[in-house]
């Protein structure tokens, strides 16, 4: 039987691993898809804002160009701008302040006619109106005419238009070329490559949108967009064990954790990342309806989403081993639980056989031997209601009767010599009684052999009878007796009875009664199935509790990461029921010497309190973050942060007092006992909260005493 159970356990472990691997892989891909979609939507906001700004700006610019009278254009142009000795046209120096005013630059040699004057004056007015508003999200805004003259609002560098060389040209600039009709036939917003801006030394990209009037290209509006924060979020804010990448459709990398954009294009690290990126691009073209896919050659899972506006792609890459490790851990737990269940089952069966079957049978066998030896005063357990109890009572009755016969025989033998002649007939009767007594004694000897054989099958008989007894006891068989009594009372006129008002209901009643018995049988089977499922869950909880059922030691080696995981497993049922998500940041530390059971008690209390603190938080937002780290050279810190109901400032000083609680069903002992246990460990337990609705952080610090090698 043990071998068969072991085979079942091995197969269950294998199927559990396959199921867990498939489940975790699906969950990992779903998580990646959601993460990438959310991040792409968040990061594309600045680019979509630039497009919206350009659309509004171009509408205002076109209206201003059409509405300005030519006389006013010439007057304002002469009042604002002047041709300098170097041949360029710029703002009049005596009234120009670049921090509040728009700067103009017309390179030397560019002819200025009425049409250009109209566009420059209109652009100056519109840019003066919109530029300060755009400065909230963008470092500058500038207009470039089709003939290259430009207007710029850039308070960070107010003298840019005044200091530019007289023959400066933007003819080869990427943003200028992208606005020309032959390069941008769809007349949409275009984005330049990423480059380092010379003034601030920061990475930027330029968004440019052309403006056409009456089919003629007249100007374009542009923003310089800083990418420092985007790159920092891309590299620093990622899923555990994963990293993020941003790249263009042509393969240019915008942000990558292992690629420094300052490297020369020919360096080996850049080449390796380009090969990796090409693999992602090729796989993107063949994916089927999902944003997440696998890269088997790199052992990775990848999710990609396009950032609307720029055409850039945001990708999150997670190693495959993160998923397989979870499946292997779950399989090991299933195998361990199976082995423990097998050992526990064999122990229970052994105990039941010894206490309920073997020991009573040994007592009955010994009693049989004593009866056969003539000792009739026997002690048997006659209180049991099963077959062994019935057998003990039968033995007791048999022993009493044999004792009674023996006493009668002894009395008869005492007067035998004196009553030989006159009691011949009585002797014959006594002889017959002796023969019957001998026969009963022989029956006792035979019973000994019978009991030996019966003992081998009593376990199965007892189990079967108990199950049958429970099922039959719950069935409503008294209804059958009522029907039989009714039929017996009307036996003489049964035919007429079946035709009257009560008799006609008899057969439907019998049919319903049979269906009721079938339903009750189905109910019993369903209950037995429930017992099986509950027993499996109880076995999982018993396993964790058994690990800590031993007597505690004052100091013993403890692996803190494993102790934190054990506290989560003890609370696993409640965490699953409350649908709390877990985020672990557990630093790998060597074993430390501490009181294992006090530390576990503290962690279990803190996890349980955090779970209840998030009852009023929406299910999708419930998050418990656990962090384990080496605080100092002689301290270890464990932090548990929840985003639950939080703690009011006036309660922070009372939270660890005995009897203080905020829950109606609470007793106010958990945190008090945890604080005392932390002091006994030589550490501290503290709490911090920014106020109601802002969550709470409990910080446990204990002494760091690593286990020395050889101890």
From TrEMBL:
Domain of life of the organism in this record?
A: Bacteria
Tell where it localizes. Answer: Membrane
List each coiled-coil range.
Answer: 399-433
SUPFAM superfamilies tied to this protein: ATPase domain of HSP90 chaperone/DNA topoisomerase II/histidine kinase, HAMP domain-like
Top EC class for this record: transferase
Catalyzed reactions per annotation: ATP + protein L-histidine = ADP + protein N-phospho-L-histidine
| Alphabetical UniProt keywords | ATP-binding, Coiled coil, Kinase, Nucleotide-binding, Phosphoprotein, Transferase
Q: Which parts pass through the membrane?
A: none
Under Pfam families, the record lists:
HAMP, HATPase_c
Q: Which GO terms describe its biological process?
A: signal transduction
- Give the main location: membrane
Residue ranges of domain HAMP in the record: 355-407
Name the Enzyme Commission number(s) assigned to this protein. 2.7.13.3
Q: Which GO terms describe its molecular function?
A: ATP binding; protein histidine kinase activity
InterPro entries named in the record: 2C_sensor_his_kinase, HAMP_dom, HATPase_C_sf, HATPase_dom, His_kinase_dom, Sig_transdc_His_kin-like_C
SMART domains, per database record: HAMP, HATPase_c
What range(s) does the Histidine kinase domain occupy? 449-706
Q: Which GO terms describe its cellular component?
A: membrane
- What is the protein's name according to its record? histidine kinase
Query: What is the species listed in this Swiss-Prot or TrEMBL entry?
Result: Cystobacter ferrugineus
